[in-house]
Amino acid sequence: MRKGTKRKAREVGKGKSKQEEETNTQEQTATTEQLVGESVQEEPKKNEKGGVVKGRAKRAKIVKPDTQTEYFPDKRNLEDLWQEVFPVGTEWDQIDMVYQYKWNFSNLEDAFEEGGELHGKKVYLFGCTEPQLVFFQGQSKVTCIPVVVAVVSPFPPSDKIGINSVQREAEEILPMKQMKMDWVPYIPLEKRESQVERLKSQIFILRCTQRRAGLKHLKLERVKKFEYCLPYFYQPFAEDEFEQSTIVQILFPTEPPVFCEFDWEFDEPEEMADKFIEGEELSADKKDEFVAFVKEKVKEGKKSNREAREARKKAIQEMSEEAKAAFQSMKFYKFYPVTSPDAPDVSQVKSPFINRYYGKAHRVF
């Protein structure tokens, strides 16, 4: 082979090697830049004043666990109405027992809806409890059943409270406020964000502001008065059955005390005294004192009946025609809890009787 040919061949080989080296160098450079970009953070940028310009951080992607949406039933507008009404006359240590069940008063709520008995009317509500033997969850037991009485009237049916019991010698009629009770407007749930003074409520409830925590500072007699309270009502157009009653309660102060009912039309004080002496409930030396005590109570009873009749006649004479119409159109409605799986069934123990002042309800729900 000629020398020139060999030289040329070496130059061609040499050229290829150089080209391959350049290609390899470029690939290495690109690979290095890629690695540097993945592993090395860029230097923070600076503004004109030399401060560091913060970049927007990338948010980590949070994978939310699959959960089922939980739905709560919407509260009804008058759902807590029965709970807001004070259960007048209930013993303080029994009040919590009234709310041990989830009583359903949807019948009371429905009465205020369109077409209901109380819709569009001015109504005054008070509560009470009726201890009854009822059956629930396989057993029978005495339960304090909450009851709500609705009085349809253009004005409060009364501003007084009656206090009476078999343990008390005399009945008392006191102003409600003396027992920390009053009629207050009830605000439905959907309107409780509004300004109360701008609302024209048609529903008023009997509320008591006495705190149970403060009872320990009261005398026992004062505490017991709350338990003997009855919502008072005086209907001048209906002759009170007690105006004509010939029966008086006798609580003779001896040891032990003698309690009985005395009917002055049929009973004789001397005969009753002999009966108690014979039964060893009254000592013989107390007979004359007992007879005098009974005669005095009879005298008070007759005077009370006479004054009640006179007061009723006077009230009617002084009453305006508007007030007369209101009294004559006044209606009482009594609401018991409806049957539900969460509380005892009270459908068999309903009664139209409210109390000795209000008498019977016009309708029971």
Automatic annotation (TrEMBL):
Residue numbers spanned by region Disordered: 1-58
Compositional bias annotation for Basic and acidic residues: 10-21, 42-51
Keyword Ion transport (UniProt): no
Keywords recorded for this protein, A-Z: Coiled coil
GO BP terms, alphabetized: regulation of cellular response to heat
Coiled-coil portions: 298-325
Gene3D superfamilies: 6.10.250.2770
Low complexity bias (residue ranges): 25-34
Domain of life: Eukaryota
UniProt name for this protein: Protein HEAT INTOLERANT 4-like
Top-level taxonomy: Eukaryota, Viridiplantae, Streptophyta, Embryophyta, Tracheophyta
